[in-house]
Design goal:
This protein is an all-alpha fold and about 400 residues long. It has one domain. A two-stranded antiparallel sheet has the order 1-2.
């Protein structure tokens, strides 16, 4: 093994081990979704019960059930030693760490270049700063798929597009990287054909399994949601709640905390079309640059990051694990265009650290709308908007080759 990658691997694996352990000791149950939601879903599917996404509507795309069931299978030999819950939590951490390790190996290779080494250190730091939420959510499964798919887009665009499409069928956000590739890549027809073929094959399989009525329920399930407490658009309501003009309550229907106050329903309803407009505007801006000849390596990273950030900033849901979505575009930015990746990377690391301070470390105080956590969340959400602006600026400043 090349001596340059030994410290990279040592730090990467150590951080994953520490982060997995912190999930057991941090407050507010940062592992709660894994053991309270994922494990019952997987158990039901494997034991002949209801199958989410197939026999009943689900908030996730159907492929998200696969890693949940895989973790259940991994945990079975250890149930007698630790009990079903603990065994499943360990199995989930092992599964995510293994997937991350595969993508990390592709990133650093045997003799990593300078940009790849910086990207590797960034990934390690982001996981450490974000904390247990970087591992104990379904979003964590999609990060290595996005990294691997993004790295393969240049030399193997069909394989890269296939991995990104599979990621989007687990959690929708990697679809933003597919869109960025369709805009920026010269092999966009191959990317489009691959994404369409993978999606069509999955849809056929899901129809055969009986999911015809709930095939796209993961889209319709989001439309009726309220405004989650950590969402960017919920920030004014948290300050209003401190003044007694709004409130924070728990929704038993979707198992999350939401804000309530004057105009909340209108804001929540407007955010979905605002998201569509934001994504379309970014895509149109990037398409102009691509049409005028902008290079893939300069255009793709900021477009990918800006589209992903748009999905977060305009989202009625503000779950802390959304910050994991930012990791893959920054890694790819370092690999493809290191010189301009520094500022957005530093901002993403700050966002990861602030998110961990909010959830799980001060989440109970946030729900009581205490000053410090509300202030931390306000700064975090403002920085998300700043990151979105930085991404747009980077797209605008992407150079166009001079035509003779």
């Amino acid at each position: 093994m090349n001596r340059r990658i030994v410290p990279l691997w040592a730090a990467f694996l150590a951080v994953h081990a520490v982060t997995a352990w912190l999930g057991w000791v941090y407050p507010s149950q940062p592992m709660g979704d894994v053991v309270l939601v994922y494990e019952p879903w997987a158990t039901s599917a494997l034991t002949g019960g209801t199958i989410v996404g197939i026999t009943e509507p689900w908030v996730y795309p159907q492929l998200a059930l696969v890693p949940m069931m895989l973790a259940k299978a991994i945990s079975l030999p250890f149930v007698g030693l630790w009990g079903p819950s603990a065994a499943y939590l360990v199995a989930w951490a092992v599964l995510v760490t293994g997937l991350d390790a595969i993508a990390f190996a592709m990133l650093v290779r045997r003799r990593p270049s300078g940009p790849r080494r910086v990207a590797a250190w960034f990934w390690t730091a982001a996981v450490l700063l974000l904390g247990p939420i970087a591992l104990y959510r379904i979003d964590a499964v999609t990060v290595p798929l996005a990294v691997t798919g993004g790295l393969l887009l240049v030399r193997h665009p069909a394989v890269g597009a296939a991995l990104l499409t599979l990621g989007a069928w687990i959690k929708v956000w990697p679809g933003a990287l597919v869109l960025a590739a369709l805009i920026a890549a010269r092999s966009r027809l191959r990317v489009l054909a691959t994404a369409a073929a993978v999606s069509a094959a999955l849809i056929v399989v899901l129809f055969l399994l009986g999911a015809d009525q709930h095939l796209f329920a993961f889209l319709s399930q989001q439309t009726g949601r309220g405004l989650q407490v950590e969402a960017v658009a919920a920030t004014p309501y948290l300050w209003a709640a401190r003044a007694g003009a709004a409130s924070v309550g728990y929704s038993f229907e979707i198992l999350t905390f939401q804000v309530d106050g004057p105009g909340v329903a209108v804001v929540s309803a407007v955010l979905t079309p605002v998201m569509a407009v934001a994504v379309a505007a970014v895509a149109a801006l990037a398409a102009v640059k691509s049409f005028r000849g902008a290079a893939f390596r300069r255009l793709f990273p900021p477009v990918a990051l800006t589209l992903v950030t748009a999905l977060i900033v305009t989202n009625k849901v503000g779950s802390p694990q959304f910050q994991t979505w930012l990791i893959a575009p920054i890694i790819l930015w370092f690999v493809y265009d290191r010189a301009r990746a520094g500022a957005p990377a530093a901002l993403v690391l700050v966002l990861c650290g602030l998110t961990c301070l909010i959830y799980p470390l001060s989440y109970d105080a946030l729900l009581r709308t205490e000053l410090v956590p509300v202030l931390l969340l306000t700064v975090r959400n403002l920085l998300l908007v700043v990151l979105f602006v930085i991404g747009i600026r980077a797209i605008i400043r992407t150079p166009i080759p001079t035509r003779r």
